[in-house]
Design goal:
- The structure holds two protein chains of two kinds.
- Chain A is mainly alpha-helical.
- In chain B, strands 9, 10, 11, 12, 13, 14, 15, 16 and 17 form a nine-stranded mixed sheet that branches. In chain B, strands 1-8-4-5 form a four-stranded mixed sheet. A four-stranded antiparallel sheet of chain B has the order 6-3-2-7, with no helix packed on it.
- In chain B, strand 11 and strand 12 form a beta hairpin.
- In chain B, helix 6 crosses helix 7 and helix 8 packs across helix 9.
- The chains are: A mainly alpha, B alpha+beta.
- At the A-B interface, helix 3, helix 5, helix 7, helix 9 and helix 10 of A face helix 1, helix 2, helix 4, helix 5 and helix 9 of B.
C-alpha cells in the first residue's frame, strides 16, 4: 500500500471511529490501535520504564475510546496529536499518583498550522524517500538526481576511493552495466568523484554503523552479517550450555548480552529478564563499558581524515566538508534516531568521539536540541516543503 | 578542544524562523520512531552480481543491486572477482562453461548464473527483429528499463547489428562510406509513378540520428502524394536489414529522430549514406534480400587486436540450436581460405549488451569449396533458430592464439 492509499484508509477508519454506530466505531478503533500503540510506545520510550509504558499506553487508549465524541476527524496527524495530549495527561497522573478526568480544553484538538506538514510527512515517509531527502538535504547530494543515479555515482566513488579501481576500469564497468545509456565520459566521472556531497556521503558510510554492523564488529563476525545471522547467533547462544563458547573472544553470556544490547536495542534493565542467568545489571553494564571502549567510531574517523588529507583536489575546508557546518552529523543522528529509534545516549556514544577529531564537540544537550527541540525536523521541514512545492 | 559555538548559533538563528511547535516536534518525532521503514536491500548474491555485470537487469533491480553494493562493503569486494570469473568464462566454449558450473566455488556459481542468462537470451533472439519492427527505437529504449529478457535480447542483437554496420564502414573505408552523393534508398512497397525519394541522414554531435525523407515529383518539386503514409526506416548492411522506427509522411517529407542512437552504436557525428538504409512502405513485409546470410568477421592479430578490414562470410543456414547443439552451415570463398589458412574461425553468440558467449573455434584449413556444417555442444539450451546473422559474432584469429588472449 502506498502513502496516499494508507492516508485514505486511515481517514476512513477515523470516520467510522467518529460515527454514531458504536459497533463500527469499535471495530475501526481496534484496527488502528496497533499503529496507535506503536506510536505511544515511541512517545514514552525514553521517559518511562517498560512496565509504566505498558500501563500508560493501556490507559491512554481506554481514555481515547471513552472520549471519542470529543475528537473531530481532521485526519491522521490530528489523531496522533490528540492521542499525545491524552497520553501526556495520563503521564502526569502517573507521576502524581492520581487518576483525574481529562479537562475538556485538553481534549480540544490543537490547530497550530503544522498538521498539513505532518500529514505530508506521514504520507510520503513510508518508503526510502524520507531518508533519501535527508541524504540530499543534510549531506548535500545533488538534488536534481534520482536515487538510482545518486547511488550509481556513490558506488563509482566507493570503488575509486575505497577499492582502488582505476578510472578506466570504472568507465568500462559503468557502460557494461547500462548498455542502453550513453557512455560516461572521463570528465563526467571526475565531476562525480570530486563532488563534496559524494565525499561527505562516503564519510557518512564509513562512520555509520547499523545495529547489525556494530554487533557483528563487536563479536568479530563477518562484516556483512545480516539480521538473520545475528538471530541465529542469539539462538545458538541461548541454547549453549558452556560459558566459554561465545563469539569473538567473549563468553556465551557476554555474547548474548551484546546481541541483546546492540542488535536488539534493549537496555541492561530490560535485558536482565531475557538472559537465563543470575547476571546482575552491574555486570551487564561492565560488559557494555568494555564494548564502548572497543567502538570503531574514532578509528573510522581517523581513516576518513587520512583519506581526505590525500585528496589533492580538495578545496573545501574541513569544517564545511565533514565538520559542524557540514550536515554530516545531523545525518548520522537522523539515521540512528529514525531508522533505529536509538535513545539519545546511544546516539551520543556513536557520534561524539568521531566528531571530536574534526574537531566538533557534540554534547548530549546539543542532541537534545537537535531532536526533542526540533532542530533537525525543522530543517527537514523547510527542505521538504520547498521540494514538494516545486 | 575548540567548541564550534559560532556556527551553532548561526545555524540556530537560521533554522528557528517559523519552527514547528513543540507539540508538533514531539508528535512527528514519536511517529517517525514508531514506523517500520522499508528495509535497505541485502548484499546482492552472486547470481544478482552476474546479471548486473551482464546488463541484464531491469532499472529497479539494477538500482537494488547498486544500493546493496553501496551499503555492503563485502559485496563490493566480491564484484571484481565475479567480473574476472565472468570474463574468463565468456571466452571458453559453451560446453566447457557447462562443465565449470558443476563446481561449488565462485567460478562455478558465476558459470551457473551466466549460462542461465545466456540460454534465456538465445531463446528470445528469434523475436528480436519482430519486436523492433513493432515498437521501434524509442519504445524499446523505454522498455529496457522494465528489464524483460525479450527486450534485452532485442537490444543486444541490435547492438550486434550496429557492429556489423561499423565493420561495413571499415571494409569500404569510412571516408568512402560517408562521402559523395547518395544513391536513392532501397525501397520496399509500391510507389506511385513519377514520385522520387531522397533520404538524408546524419548523426548529430549529441549522437541523435536524424533522417529525413524528401518526396518529389518528376520535376523535382516537393510532392504530398504520400502524405499520411506510414514508412518504416531500417538499417541495411550487406543485404541484411534491421528495423529502426516508423514515421508518417507529413506533406512532402517524413522525419525520424532517434536520440542517442549514434552514441549507442558508436557512430561518429556526420552524414550517413542513404545506401545504408531501407524504407518499407505501409507495413509491407520485411524484405529478404540475400540468399545467404552475410556476416562480417573481424580479423585479429596474435594479440587478439583487430587488424585489417573485416572479411565477409556466407552463412548458408540460419544459426540454430537443436538437441542442445549449435548448428551452422558456413561457406568460405577460395581467397579467404588461402589468405587465412593459418587462422581459425571463432564464433560467439550475442547475449546481453555487448556481451557474448564463445561457441567454439574451427581451423580455416578444414574448409573446402563446399560449405561446412559446424556444430558445438550447448547443454540446456532450447531448440531455436534465429533468422538473422548478427546473433553471432565472428573473428578470424591466428591458430596459435593463446587462450588468455582469447
Amino acid at each position: 500500500m502506498d502513502g496516499d492509499e494508507e492516508k485514505e484508509r486511515f481517514k476512513g477508519e477515523l470516520k467510522l471511529f467518529c460515527g454514531a454506530d458504536e459497533k463500527l466505531a469499535r471495530a475501526a478503533f481496534d484496527r488502528f490501535s496497533h499503529p496507535s500503540r506503536r506510536y505511544l510506545y515511541a512517545l514514552l520510550r525514553d521517559k518511562f520504564s517498560r512496565d509504566d509504558q505498558e500501563e500508560i499506553v493501556q490507559i491512554t487508549l481506554v481514555k481515547a475510546w471513552k472520549h471519542r465524541n470529543a475528537f473531530t476527524n481532521h485526519g491522521r496527524a490530528a489523531w496522533f496529536g490528540w492521542l499525545a495530549k491524552i497520553a501526556r495527561h495520563t503521564c502526569i497522573d502517573r507521576i502524581r499518583g492520581t487518576r483525574t478526568e481529562i479537562p475538556i480544553d485538553l481534549l480540544t484538538e490543537r490547530d497550530d498550522g503544522d498538521l498539513p506538514f505532518i500529514e505530508l510527512v506521514m504520507t510520503n515517509a513510508l518508503g526510502r524517500e524520507y531518508f533519501y531527502l535527508a541524504d540530499v538535504d543534510l549531506l548535500g547530494l545533488d538534488a536534481t538526481l534520482t536515487p538510482s543515479e545518486q547511488d550509481r555515482r556513490l558506488l563509482a566513488a566507493q570503488y575509486f576511493y575505497l577499492h582502488d579501481w582505476s578510472a578506466e576500469e570504472l568507465l568500462e564497468h559503468l557502460s557494461e552495466t547500462r548498455p542502453d545509456s550513453p557512455p560516461v565520459s572521463h570528465a563526467q566521472l571526475c565531476s562525480w568523484l570530486e563532488a563534496p556531497g559524494t565525499l561527505r556521503y562516503l564519510a557518512y558510510q564509513e562512520l555509520y554503523f547499523s545495529p547489525e554492523r556494530l554487533t557483528a564488529y563487536l563479536l568479530r563476525m563477518a562484516t556483512d552479517s545480516t539480521a538473520g545471522d545475528l538471530e541465529r547467533a542469539l539462538t545458538t547462544m541461548r541454547a549453549a550450555r558452556t560459558v566459554s563458547s561465545g563469539l569473538g573472544g567473549w563468553t556465551c553470556l557476554e555474547t548474548q548480552a551484546i546481541l541483546w544490547r546492540y542488535y536488539r536495542g534493549l537496555t541492561a534493565d530490560e535485558m536482565a529478564r531475557h538472559i537465563d542467568s543470575d547476571t546482575n545489571i552491574n555486570e551487564l553494564e561492565s560488559i557494555f563499558e568494555r564494548c564502548g571502549r572497543m567502538f570503531p567510531f574514532t578509528e573510522q574517523m581517523e581513516k576518513v581524515c587520512r583519506w581526505l588529507d590525500n585528496l589533492d583536489f580538495l578545496k573545501m575546508e574541513r569544517p564545511k566538508l565533514i565538520g559542524g557546518e557540514s550536515g554530516l552529523w545531523y545525518r548520522l543522528v537522523f539515521e540512528y534516531r529514525y531508522r533505529h529509534s536509538l535513545p539519545l545516549k546511544d546516539i551520543h556514544q556513536r557520534v561524539y568521539s568521531a566528531a571530536s577529531l574534526v574537531p566538533y564537540e557534540i554534547t548530549l544537550d546539543m542532541l537534545n536540541t537537535w531532536l526533542s527541540g526540533g532542530r533537525l525536523l525543522n530543517r527537514l521541514r523547510r527542505y521538504y516543503e520547498k521540494r514538494h512545492s516545486e | 578542544m575548540k567548541k564550534d559555538t559560532v556556527s551553532e548559533t548561526e545555524v540556530e538563528a537560521k533554522e528557528e524562523a517559523q519552527p514547528l511547535s513543540q507539540d508538533s516536534v514531539e508528535l512527528l518525532d514519536a511517529w517517525l520512531r514508531s514506523q517500520e521503514f522499508a528495509a535497505e536491500p541485502d548484499a546482492p548474491n552472486v547470481a544478482a552480481l552476474v546479471a548486473y555485470l551482464s546488463g541484464a537487469l531491469s532499472a529497479d533491480a539494477l538500482h537494488n543491486v547498486e544500493r546493496g553494493l553501496v551499503l555492503h562493503p563485502s559485496a563490493r569486494t566480491q564484484l571484481r572477482p565475479t567480473r574476472e570469473a565472468l570474463r574468463a568464462l565468456r571466452t571458453l566454449p559453451w560446453s566447457e562453461v557447462a562443465q565449470v558450473r558443476q563446481a561449488e566455488d565462485l567460478t562455478g556459481q558465476v558459470a551457473r548464473a551466466w549460462l542461465a542468462l545466456a540460454a534465456g537470451s538465445v531463446a528470445a533472439a528469434p523475436s528480436a527483429q519482430r519486436q523492433w519492427q513493432a515498437e521501434g527505437w524509442n519504445a524499446i529504449r523505454e522498455k529496457m528499463a522494465a528489464g524483460a529478457i525479450e527486450t534485452k535480447a532485442a537490444w543486444a542483437n541490435f547492438l550486434s547489428f550496429g557492429s556489423q554496420l561499423r565493420a561495413a564502414f571499415q571494409r569500404v573505408g569510412p571516408a568512402v562510406a560517408r562521402s559523395g552523393r547518395d544513391a536513392p534508398p532501397l525501397l520496399w512497397g509500391d510507389l506511385p509513378p513519377d514520385i522520387h525519394l531522397s533520404l538524408s541522414a546524419e548523426v548529430s554531435a549529441e549522437g541523435t540520428l536524424q533522417a529525413t525523407l524528401y518526396i518529389q515529383d518528376s520535376w523535382e518539386s516537393p510532392s504530398s502524394h504520400l502524405a499520411g503514409t506510414q514508412i518504416h526506416l531500417q538499417f541495411l548492411v550487406n543485404g541484411q536489414t534491421w528495423p529502426l522506427a516508423d514515421a508518417e509522411v507529413v506533406e512532402d517529407r517524413a522525419v525520424w529522430t532517434l536520440p542517442a542512437m549514434g552514441t549507442v552504436l558508436g557512430l561518429a557525428a556526420g552524414s550517413l549514406p542513404a545506401a545504408y538504409f531501407c524504407l518499407v512502405l505501409n507495413g509491407a513485409p520485411p524484405p529478404l534480400l540475400a540468399g545467404s546470410l552475410p556476416l562480417l568477421a573481424e580479423v585479429q592479430d596474435a594479440e587478439g587486436k583487430p587488424t585489417g578490414p573485416p572479411v565477409l562470410l556466407e552463412l548458408r543456414s540460419e544459426p540454430r540450436w537443436a538437441e542442445e547443439k549449435f548448428h551452422l552451415e558456413i561457406a568460405l570463398s577460395g581467397p579467404v581460405r588461402i589468405a587465412y589458412q593459418a587462422c581459425q574461425l571463432r564464433l560467439e553468440v550475442v547475449v546481453f549488451g555487448n556481451f557474448r558467449q564463445c561457441l567454439g573455434c574451427w581451423p580455416i584449413r578444414d574448409w573446402s569449396d563446399s560449405p561446412r556444417l559446424l556444430t558445438a555442444d550447448c547443454p540446456d539450451i532450447r531448440d531455436t533458430a534465429v533468422p538473422y546473422a548478427s546473433v553471432l559474432y565472428a573473428a578470424l584469429q591466428p591458430l596459435s592464439l593463446p587462450r588468455e588472449v582469447i
